[in-house]
Amino acid sequence: MTATAPSWLTEVAYAHRGLHDVAGTVPENSLPAFEAAIAAGYGIELDVHLTSDGRVVVTHDDDLARVTGRTVSVAASTLAALAGLRLGGTDEGIPTLDDVLDLVAGRVPVMVEIKNVRRQAGPLEAAVAGAVRAVDGPVCVASFNPRTVGWFAKHHPTVVRGQTASSFAGVDAPYLARRVLASMAANRWTRPHFVSYELSALPNRWCDRWRAAGGALVTWTVRTGDDLTRARTVADTHIFEHVEP
């Protein structure tokens, strides 16, 4: 049985890490990228990690070398220690999840991708739950980690939750583990409101069964016009980057 997704989830397309540009003048996962998405009427997809002092910050990688030029671990740093870092040579810093949710103020849907690569769920999920439950507006969470999705199902079942998945081709993991994750076998107990699946691995029988049972399907990441055309045929909405719907 699937949990029922709210209608707002599939009414918009989502800007991947905000509406950032190829040149890097508007960095990914920055407040200007999120403001640009809001102005264009798109939903926002973003990524979060937890600092050593328990603050949720918006960035895709734990190692900040790619986005700041500094080899710094989010998990090993306090929020104050990250405050001086700048994104891609701009004046923009790394925002907290609270900063972003305050900026959005319910104007567009926000999809919070929880980057938990650990075996257990808890501190990051609890901190994210505290932030999103304080928001009066359309916000959902998603994760590749079924334990994260299951944590929300158990502790905060009213928070809209999604299972992110892919074919996991090329991932250095045992075949059985990849198969279990690709087929989303844990959906039976995590009961996500939606599935977010890699476009290059669609269509597939698992997602076909999911949609046939009434489940909402998001696909990622749309980067070309051809991607956009295909995404519209295989999913209910999509996450895009550098190609606007």
Give a topology summary.
Blueprint: E1 14-16, H1 31-40, E2 43-50, E3 56-58, H2 65-68, H3 79-82, H4 97-104, E4 110-114, H5 123-133, E5 139-143, H6 146-155, E6 160-165, H7 175-183, H8 187-190, E7 194-198, H9 205-212, E8 216-222, H10 225-234, E9 237-240
Parallel strand pairs: 1-2, 1-9, 2-4, 4-5, 5-6, 6-7, 7-8, 8-9
Antiparallel strand pairs: 2-3
Helix pairs in contact: 1-4
Describe this entry's structure for a reader.
This protein is of the alpha/beta class and 245 residues long. The protein has one domain (7-240): TIM Barrel, CATH 3.20.20. The chain contains 10 helices and 9 strands. The chain has an 8-stranded parallel beta barrel with strand order 1-2-4-5-6-7-8-9, surrounded by 7 helices. The longest helix is centred in the middle third of the chain and has 11 residues, at 123-133. It is globular, with a radius of gyration of 17 Å. The chain starts with 13 loop residues before the first strand and ends in a 5-residue tail after the last strand. The model has no long low-confidence stretch (mean pLDDT 96).
